[in-house]
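Go through this one:
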Amino acid sequence: MKIGKGIKRFALTLGVVATGVLLTACGSSNSSSKGGYTSELKQSKQLTIGLEGTYAPYSYRQGGKLTGFEVDLGKAVAKKMNLKANFVPTKWDSLIAGLGSSKYDVVLNNIAETPERKKSYIFSTPYIYSRYALITKASDKSIQKLSDVKGKKLAEGTGTNNEAQAKKLGAKIVPSGDFTTTLALIRQGRVQGTINAREAWFAYAKSNSTKGLTYHKISDSQAEPVNISAMFNQKDTKIKAKFNKVLQQLRKDGTLTKLSQKYFGADITKE
């Protein structure tokens, strides 16, 4: 993992003793012309982005090359900021800590904006409005709504909002590493379902058969929606402000919707 060096504003002062005139030339005019956010960048002329790179369709490798919704989003944001997107694939267990130690400018990794995280980090406006879904085996009629999961075995990712929601409802948790594995556990009858993000289902259904499975929509009154946002170090307020401005432009010109349709087959970027 490479740690970029921050760009610092500087002043060059030339003293002319004979005339008593003090000349000051301020460098980094690029920072001034762009509202000062470039002074917070880890590497000059680059937006350094932390992500896992193993979580389709958000960020993953295809033919050895990074791709995905958040990869394309990062490139689009960087382009409008007149910067190059520099991606730093990092394992989940050290990804957020890396932001705290200034290894990158921003994290784009399907991260939910939670009260606990907001104590230590700052967030952009949301670029995904996540909703929960209940997915079960089509032949299992014992689970039709959230209140039915009490005492049932559900496959959930460790440490996720999905797991927290399932535990809150009294479900028995069976750890699962990824969404494809989760659905396999349901099909095999080893668990009775999963509480998961609707966008995970949309992305899977876009290119895979969902035969034998049932998707149950969960209303906002049953489970509060989750905002997915870019996450920043608390001191990088100028980068966050610029990111938000660019994100609004991408929303307005339809880029966010196009990317969502490309990777999820639905628009999950609107409330």
User: Anything to note?
Assistant: The chain has a mean pLDDT of 88. The radius of gyration is 22 Å. The first strand starts at residue 11 and ends at 16. The chain has two domains: 44-128+227-264, 132-224.
